[in-house]
Amino acid sequence: MIQYAYQVRFNTPAFLGNAEQAGQWRTPPFKALLRQWWRVVSAPSHQYDHTALRESEGNLFGNAWLADSRGRPNFRRSRVSLRLDHWNPGKLSTPAWPGGTMESVITTADGKGSVRADVYLGFGPVSPPSKKQGLASITIRAALAPNDEAVFRVMAEESQQLTDSLQLMAWFGTIGSRSRNGWGSFAFTAKDRSPELAPVPTLDHRLIGAVGREWRQCLDRDWPHALGTEDGRPLIWVTQPYENWRKAMGALANIKVDIRRVAKAFGKPGKISGIHLLGYPAGGHWELPEFKKGRPSRDDEEARLATQLRFKVCATPEGLVGIVFHIPHGFPDALLQRLSSAQQQWVTANQAQVWADIHRALNRMPRLEPLGEAK
Length: 375
Description:
It is built from nine helices and 15 strands. It is α+β, with helices and mostly antiparallel strands.
């Protein structure tokens, strides 16, 4: 067994809640994040077979479901242990939010409707003023503040897969509520002779190619298993450096609005559309009756789909940069089965074109440049 130690420092506020939804440093979400990126690292050696990958994951991280060839239980404890040096509560609350000005985003086609970037990317933990709810100003759930720190330790058998998983966490990992929008972005600083981790991805890094897969091929699996590539280049886009998290998140909010406009061009409100490939719920005008409770099965569950186009804010010597990256996969079968036959055919026929148009738009956005390419 070896021990890796890293100083974790948040680059953006983290809505990392405990059982009471109060901001607090906690170990389980970090272990869950490590497992997520371990799957991406390990998927190629398992030929992207989720059954074989799940068995290996259970043997490494612990399980209560595996059985041997004779059907006898093969349960085991985790061989990976994580520790934080404290579980302190978050100190960022509504009176101190956000500590400066925030950019707004235009959310309507006529250009008249706008909302602040923090509300747009953080709706839920970040609530707008509301007379109905008695909120006189923007209100947030208690959060961990930018620059909050803790020491993160991992104890496990030494392996390249573990080191690679930690590197992917450093590049792409976010944690807490609305984390795929860039909240809860963090940086690692090595301690106690632990392996150094690069703060931002680079084209020449071995790991970029190792976990990459042609994005159209990724549509043959309905779970996140690889970093998408196109013509051998990763689907990663980077903003210019910004002096603070508010400006970085403002840029990402406007990028997300532009991405959604591209997706909305496929279909119309109330119908299956490109916007539903970006995630669900997709906004009030884009609700699908088929995804509501009781339609047509699982009457206790409202459909949910996490976005596969993710955001991160990374720290560099020049400032904070926003990163947009695609972990592509097919539309989940469990949700596809809730759609009508015609809707299923629409998804099958159109999902590749929707993503191709989104990639093309990202390549052209003035706030972004593809990784390793200067505009």
